[in-house]
Design brief:
By secondary structure, this protein is mainly alpha-helical. It has 5 domains: 3-66, no CATH class; 72-418, Na+/H+ antiporter like fold; 428-551 and 579-627, no CATH class; 645-688; 699-829, Sandwich (Jelly Rolls). The chain has 32 helices and 8 strands.
């Protein structure tokens, strides 16, 4: 084939890609539908000019188009890894985990159900053997990521709906391709009735092998990229190699799912990349992959659509009946999962609820595309598949794909509109009015500064200011006087705006490199939860999301267990250091929100809403400060190192900004500026290294903070530090239950707890203890104790507590004082303990140990 002609065709395809995007916007159709339509027109046109007798002038071009090396392996090994890898890099994984149950059900269970449903429906309606029918079912059961993701990103679909659809389309390819490989083997071997039990038993092994392969490949790539921090192009080049090596390694070497390997590699890089790569390198990498995926997605649609005229050749009227059977069976199987299984999982509390309009949109949004055509093409290319089977596979897969693209794809926007998912709710409409009012106020301030700077004509300024002021007054009045917005909705609007400003502040800090990239990803995810929580459940949803951001996760608890039981301190040290950095970053972000509330929220929603938001914000700040206080008590030197690191990062940012200003003002040349910025880059790379946290050496320092242990000698302090066990509690967690059998004494290192007994409640704070009365009186606890903020406690068992009591006079004094305030004879409680100096009197606002009186 002439290389000039091939190059011309490829250039023409890129021209088609460039034209398709504005054309899709003008026609209000998904770009994938436009690309598929143009591809089919090109294919039909090539066949027409090659067979017509009107002219032979275009025969070389038509022959070149039809002779393009379009094979199934081109789609599966070249385009598919690019699309999957970029989609995983662009996912908000922490938000995706909120809906992991419906995503996995749609990605795995729905694929199996669709394969079986379509397969048995075809087996009943056609003369094909069962293995061939199940093969067709596996081919048409996968939704295409390039079709689905592009459509849902181009329409006004809710974020949660788009996340579920994107997550399903990414993961179900692996399930469908794995099933395709299994049934393809049966068809080529001539096995008419495969053993479904044995076939499905191999399915988890394919998935697990692909996941492990992708994770290992990503870890190796991240390690390699971290070796070249000052070479962003080298890092991007390594990332480009990663999905292909993972795919080929899983498919050819391990015999596992290459799709799962690519997804696992992308997820691993998404989670660990921001923390291991410089922010600018990570941003460049994402931009390169966005462009690669855009080209790959467009080319895969055009090239796959070129095949459609050839795959539909030889179609008979009866084949269209079978296409109808496939369409009905596939939609019915998907409906069973969406309207049968998902509500059942929600009823038994295994899955978050998915609203009926969402499920209807997901049902109609299961589009097929190039992946389905590529799998069908792989069947038609095989020499070991019977001719009739190849013909029907090509026709049925192509017909079903055309139905999903041309019918479902073109009507999906209309369906979402009919379901009301593209319309703003009353509260969102009020939010838009608020945005306009706030924006116009900011614009007025900026315009005023501009007119003063440039000394414009006063009459012109006065005239324009009058018109602009009238518009601003109307916008503020519309935001304040909306009759259809209740007071609680105004609070919700303020919370959404506050969380949105928090997100903007995080992005600004990330650009300024004030906070690390990994922490920024976590904080952005928390801000998104705040926005969605406020939008769906108002104040309670915002508070629930805020509590979730401050809690100790399951990984942290598992690390505590490994440290306490197996003496493996590495995971706990790493997660504790992460929590330190996260809390410091949260404090930095939250302290910038007061000005937004006073300057923006108060002007729009009034003083009452602003005061309420200030109260909610102060609670979050208090929770962060409590968490930091506990960590500082436990690891004082580490907190100082992190704060020094923050100061160094801030100084470097300011220094870099100053050099940039000098370069713009012409005070320094390009050569000097480059040398200075390279020096800053070297120092910034050294400042990025986080100091190591040694959790083994911090026990005595923490114990020494307690006044109760002030009279212990250093040897006794070290022994006590080894005996005490840390306990991390989230707000609301029950620490001691009524009538509990275990007898332990708890010392509060940071945070606060609430005791409740006989209808009365007490609160205890840092430095106090509880549980000692039940131990000394040898009775089961009658109080229930729960943490009211995230707290750090030290736990001592009964035997060690009694031995400690015999050695510490300060502890005996505290126990005597607590017993006396509860009306218990201290001498009866401690008959053999020598009396010591009187315990210091509690300050008036402090809660005495073990509940001195009702709150």
């Amino acid at each position: 084939m002439d290389i000039v002609l091939v190059t011309t065709i490829i250039a023409a395809l890129f021209l088609v890609i460039g034209v398709s995007e504005p054309l899709a916007a003008r026609l209000r159709l998904p770009q994938s539908v436009i690309l598929a339509s143009l591809g089919m027109l090109i294919g039909v046109g090539a066949l027409f000019f090659l067979r017509t007798e009107l002219t032979d002038a275009l025969n070389p071009v038509a022959e070149a188009i039809l002779a393009l090396p379009i094979r199934s392996n081109v789609f599966l090994y070249v385009f598919l890894p690019t699309l999957l890898f970029q989609a995983t890099l662009g996912m908000n994984l922490r938000r995706m985990l909120d809906d992991w149950v419906p995503i996995l059900v749609l990605a795995v269970v729905a694929v199996v159900v669709a394969t079986l449903g379509v397969g048995y429906a075809l087996f009943w309606a056609s003369a094909l053997p069962l293995a061939a029918c199940l093969l067709i079912g596996a081919i048409v059961s996968t939704t295409d990521p390039s079709a689905v993701v592009s459509i849902f990103r181009s329409i006004s679909a809710p974020r949660r709906l788009a996340r579920i659809i994107e997550g399903e389309s990414l993961l179900n390819d692996a399930a469908a391709i794995a099933l395709f490989g299994l049934f393809m083997g049966f068809v080529m071997l001539g096995v008419p009735d495969p053993d479904l039990g044995q076939t499905l038993a191999r399915f988890p092994l394919l998935m697990a092998g692909g996941a492990v392969t992708g994770w290992l490949a990503a870890q190796a790539a991240i390690w390699l990229m971290a070796l070249f921090p000052g070479h962003p192009r080298a890092q991007v080049s390594i990332s480009v190699a990663l999905p292909y090596l993972a795919y080929i390694g899983a498919e050819q070497s391990v015999g596992a799912s290459g799709v799962i390997a690519v997804v696992a590699a992308g997820l691993t890089l998404n989670l660990t990349g921001p923390g291991r790569l410089p922010p600018q390198s990570w941003s460049n990498l994402r931009e390169v992959w966005d462009l690669l995926a855009h080209w790959a997605g467009a080319l895969i649609f055009i090239l796959a659509a070129l095949l459609i005229p050839r795959l539909l050749e030889g179609a008979r009227p009866s084949d269209f009946v079978l296409i109808g059977v496939v369409v009905l069976a596939a939609i019915a199987a998907r409906a069973v999962i969406l309207f049968g299984l998902l509500p059942l999982l929600t009823a038994i509390r295994l899955s978050p609820p998915v609203d009926v309009p969402y499920r209807a949109a997901i049902l109609w949004g299961g589009l097929r595309g190039a992946v389905t055509l590529a799998l069908a093409l792989a069947v038609t290319e095989s020499l070991r598949v019977p001719l009739e089977t190849k013909r029907l596979v090509g026709i049925l897969a192509t017909g079903f794909t055309l139905f999903t693209l041309l019918v479902q794809g073109t009507t999906l926007r209309w369906v979402i509109g009919r379901l009301g998912l593209d319309r703003l709710s009353p509260i969102e409409e009020a939010l838009s009015r608020q945005v306009v009012a706030v924006a116009l106020q900011t614009v007025r301030e900026d315009v005023a500064r501009t007119t003063e700077t440039y000394d414009l004509t006063r009459e012109i300024v006065r005239t324009e200011a009058k018109q602009f002021g009238a518009r601003l007054d109307d916008a503020v009045r519309a935001a304040e006087d909306s009759a259809d917005i209740l007071d609680r909705d105004r609070i919700t609007l303020g919370l959404i705006a506050l969380a949105g400003h928090e997100r903007d502040t995080i992005l600004r800090c990330l650009r300024d490199r004030t906070i690390p990239g990994a922490m920024a990803e976590r904080l952005l995810s928390d801000a998104d939860r705040l926005i969605e929580g406020a939008r769906t459940a108002g104040r309670s949803g915002y508070q629930r999301a805020a509590r979730q951001a401050a809690t100790y996760g399951r990984g942290f608890r598992a690390a505590v267990w490994l440290h306490g039981r197996l003496r493996l301190s590495g995971p706990l040290a790493r997660l504790t250091a992460d929590r330190f950095a996260l809390l410091l970053s949260q404090r930095l972000i939250l302290r910038d929100l007061d000005e937004f509330i006073d300057g923006r929220i108060r002007r729009i929603h009034g003083r009452r809403v602003a005061d309420l938001l200030q109260e909610l914000l102060s609670r979050r700040v208090e929770a962060v400060e409590t968490g930091l206080e506990g960590l500082r008590l436990q690891y004082p030197g580490y907190a100082e190192e992190l704060e020094r690191r923050f100061i160094r990062r801030t100084a470097l940012r300011l220094e870099e900004r100053e050099y940039g200003a000098m370069r713009e003002d012409g005070l320094i040349g390009a050569e000097v500026h480059t040398a200075l910025t390279e020096d800053i880059a070297r120092r910034r790379f050294a400042a990025e290294d986080r100091p190591a946290l040694d959790i083994a050496l911090q026990g005595p320092e923490l114990v020494r903070q307690f006044p109760l242990f002030a009279d212990l000698d250093p040897a006794a302090l070290r022994q006590l530090a080894r005996a005490l066990r840390p306990r991390y509690a989230d707000a609301g967690e029950i620490l001691l239950r009524k009538d509990a059998g275990a007898r332990r004494v708890f010392f509060i290192a940071s945070g606060a707890v609430e005791l409740e007994v006989a209808g009365q409640s007490w609160r205890l704070g840092r430095g106090e203890m509880f549980g000692q009365m039940a131990v000394l009186m040898r009775r089961t606890p009658r109080a229930e104790v729960r943490a009211i903020v995230p707290s750090t406690l030290l736990v001592l068992d009964e035997d060690r507590f009694r031995r400690l009591l015999a050695r510490s006079g300060a502890l005996r004094d505290a126990v005597r004082a607590s017993a006396a305030k509860r009306g218990i004879d201290p001498d009866a409680l401690l008959p053999d303990a020598p009396a010591s100096a009187p315990a210091p009197r509690d300050p008036p606002d402090a809660a005495p140990p073990d509940g001195p009186g009702p709150r």
